[in-house]
Please model this.
Amino acid sequence: MHDLNGKTALVTGGTRGLGRAISRRLAAMGATVAMNYRRDEDSAASALEEVRAIAPRSILIKADLENDSEVRAMVARAASEFGKIDILIANAAATAFKPLLETKPHNIQRTFSLSVGGFVAAVQEVSRVMPDGGRVLMVSGIDSIRNLPGHGVLGAAKAALESMVRDFAFELGPRGITVNGLNVGYIDTDSAHFYTRYLGITWEEFKRRCEERSAMKRLPTLDEIAAVACLICLPEASYLTAQTILVDGGFTLHFPGAE
Model:
């Protein structure tokens, strides 16, 4: 039977959107989960209640992933509570949507500090408390492989993360620890709704355009993407490493001349 009984997991950005869906599914598969959040106390409390109903020992850890010391303290807290961390899901990201020609130094610094710096610090610390055979998964996005207006800085950060996935995989591979990326297309989240406002169109119109370009003619549910994330974390996925898996329903392969 495929399950995660007895496993412990740390999910950054784990109380909202895709991170929350991943936390919930990890718990349903038997894992105890530490969910990181930064400031939304209401969402964090709601997510903890939801996950604890399945995995009672699950916890919240508040930390700003832009702050190196807070990232390392977050990992130490999870390891202290659980005795180990079997799974790290690096899901959190943040940026300012704007053209590169208008990007300010602080926009670049914050995006890279949180996404890239936070990931490196988390993996470094987790490697000290993760048993052999552990799992590291970084959640990326299609802005790493194609142009998306306003995503220039975040796309560059995600591309850097996908490169680091390969390097970490070889550094941790001798211990049986796999490191992979999950590159996702558009999902119905607060971030996606915010982005459509940046584009100046309604969510309904944006959703319609994305659905037309999908082989499935629909957007995925959060649970569908979370399911793939958890499959990568199963013990049976022991030879899958150094990969960034694209789960976008065929969106990025759409032929632009198609009706």
